Amino acid sequence: MCLTCGCMDAHKEMGQNNITYEDLQAAARENGKSVDETFQIFDRTRERDQVDHPKEYDSSSQPSM
Predict the structure, then answer these.
(1) Is 10 in contact with 2 (CB distance < 8 Å)?
(2) pTM (2 decimals)?
(3) Exposed end of the chain (fewer CB within 10 Å): N or C?
(4) What is the DSSP letter of 57?
(5) CB under 8 Å to 53, separation ≥6 — which residues?
(6) CA-CA-CA-CA torsion sign (6, 18, 48, 43)
(7) Looking at residue 10, what is its pLDDT?
(8) What single string gives the DSSP state of each residue in 13-56?
(9) Domain residues of the chain, as ranges?
(10) Cα–Cα distance between 39 and 20 in angstroms, integer?
(11) 64 pLDDT band (50/70/90 cuts)?
(12) Any idea what DSSP says for residue 64?
């Protein structure tokens, strides 16, 4: 699931909380967008949220695995 875990396999099912390409594709379809548009929206939303909630993106505040 390269979209979230880093294994570089965008289609591999790896647990309940990772995001596959198919998940993103379904979200795009539901919103009447392309996958590329959805990636762009995802990035813009993350960038805005990071400004609004910087502590959530602080690596020292992330739970350890």
Answers:
(1) yes
(2) 0.74
(3) C
(4) G
(5) none
(6) positive
(7) 87
(8) --SSS---HHHHHHHHHHTT--HHHHHHHHHHHHHHHHHH-GGG
(9) 1-51
(10) 13
(11) low
(12) P
